[in-house]
Amino acid sequence: MSIAPNINTVPTILRKAFTSIIVVLYPYLVYQGIQVGIVWLAPTVLASLLLYQAYATQALQTKIIKAICALVLLLGVLFFQNITAKLLPTLIQLFLLQFFASTLKQGPPLIERFVRLEFDELPEGIVEYCRQLTLLWSGFFAINAVICSVLAIWASPELWAIYTGIMIFVLTALLMLAEYIYRHYRFPDMLIPDIKTTARNMLMYSRQIWQDVQGK
Prior knowledge:
- The chain is mainly α.
- The chain contains nine helices and no strands.
- The protein folds into two domains: 1-86, no CATH class; 87-216, no CATH class.
């Protein structure tokens, strides 16, 4: 039996991989663009990706949102190049804040949705802990959004690029590691999956949970 991936899924995987690379490298691309006088290039490439995604998607709401975001980016490139180019990390943090925080209101909290992938029955105290953890991540994204905005407006391009391109990922990894260690202390009798299993489940089911949160 062949286990080769469906050839029809290859273009989708490649597009998602390319988009992810652009987002991760975005601060570096903007910084280099500022240095050589082509700061407009990175947001223009991102706007092009958004326009293509708007064209390709079937969901009308998603199509409209992506098209509007692309239009705002292009207008920003014309009139406010430096600020527009440096606002993407702020927007990403605000998006994550909204995504996490919205589940606190409508329930169940986002972290609980992932935890239920690993347990048939949630041990006592886990539900409240998941809510507290979702609130913690929401606060983390809110603080990051403020820092990214301040750096985009007032800091040097070097400092902005270091924080948005390196420090955010370092801080995110540290928070995840600290929580994983604390989880063992908080629930010493619970059989906690290893980080690899947790990460695999998050990757496998993130789209499903995203659609569930959006009510699709």
